[in-house]
Amino acid sequence: MRTNVVLDELLVEKAKALTGIKTTRAVIDEALRLLIQVRGQGQVRDLRGQLREEGDLAALREAPAAICDVSSEGPASHLVIEPQLYSRVEQAANEHKLGVDRILTEAIRRYLWQLDRRKISKESQIYRQRHVELKTQYLGQYIAMHDGQVVDHDMDVTALRQRVRQCFDRKPVMITRVEEAPERPIVRHGFRLEAAQP
Amino acid sequence: MKYPYNAAYEPPFPAAPVVLRNSEEGLRTEKVQALLDTGSDGSLVPIAYLEEILAPPVVDTHIRSQWGEWRAAQLFAVDLELGSLRLPGVFVVGDELGSEIVLGRNVVNKLRVLLDGPAGQSDIRP
């Protein structure tokens, strides 16, 4: 379909910078997809609570997987969970007097944190492999690396972190100072006196 | 701000209570005691505290003792509160084994610290 529309240029450029999408048409397509997705979540949100009230959840536990509404506030999200795992979560919720939603949310947060840590390790490995090449260009500067590419650099690490947050939000981005050696270990001097064993 | 040395160590160790924050997530630790260690290049934080506030990982690194023993670790960014002082975006090592928070020279060198050994207290100013 061909339609002529007047766009906010600044908004389009910001969207391109944030997403890495190059063409205006692709940006609009993505925005429309997101809009439909978000509104779709609104419809799911309207169903919140109905599953449990109607007893569907209990029935689903007998099925190969269970559906659980993990959000008590904000947009609803539904997870499909193995019945045995759901049962363990419920047991833990009872034992610790916590809500199932809280346990699942906390578990997901921590898992995502572990994924972020793995991603940073991977970026660090790529950085070490590319160190000789990067040193010629960025020696003495802080660089930000995402998906193996240097996405920004600065002498001021605070300014760099702020820009990285603006562009990449909460995505894990490796930040390090490029030095002569690929890595400078952090040294702890000193020792502890301990009583001798008899 | 004056803080007593931690007398659980022999000899007593200069120490101060700190709060670690992840401002972006709105998460913080309780007030916990940190040791002031000018012999350490960087600061160490037990990984459990960093997981509690989901501190963003920054880069992989290694930590080494003066005798050359080393182990792999990861650096994380935290906002550090020491009394009324706030140090945003401090890089700390996630310590997988230890249980002490150690503020090394990357933090101590940003402060004016008077170690009053005979009085058993440290005086910390911005």
Could you explain how this protein is built, in words?
The complex is a heterodimer of chains A (198) and B (126). Chain A is an alpha+beta fold. Chain A folds into 3 domains: 7-46; 48-98, no CATH class; 119-198, no CATH class. Helix content of chain A is 55%, strand content 13%. Chain A is built from 8 helices and 6 strands. Chain A has helices at residues 9-19, 24-46, 50-53, 56-62, 83-96, 100-129, 131-138, 157-168, and strands at residues 66-69, 78-81, 142-146, 149-154, 174-177, 186-188. Chain A has a 3-stranded antiparallel sheet with strand order 4-3-5, with helices on both faces. A two-stranded antiparallel sheet of chain A has the order 1-2. Mean pLDDT of chain A is 79; it is low at 42-57. Chain B has 126 residues and is mainly beta. Chain B has one domain: Acid Proteases (Cathepsin D, subunit A, domain 1). Helix content of chain B is 8%, strand content 54%. In chain B, strands 2, 3, 4, 5, 6, 7, 8 and 9 form an 8-stranded mixed sheet that branches. Chain B has a 3-stranded antiparallel sheet with strand order 1-11-10, with no helix packed on it. The longest helix of chain B has 6 residues, at 47-52. Chains A and B meet through helix 6, helix 8, strand 5 and strand 6 of A and strand 6, strand 7 and strand 8 of B. Strand 6 of chain A pairs parallel with strand 6 (57-65) of chain B, so a sheet runs across the interface.
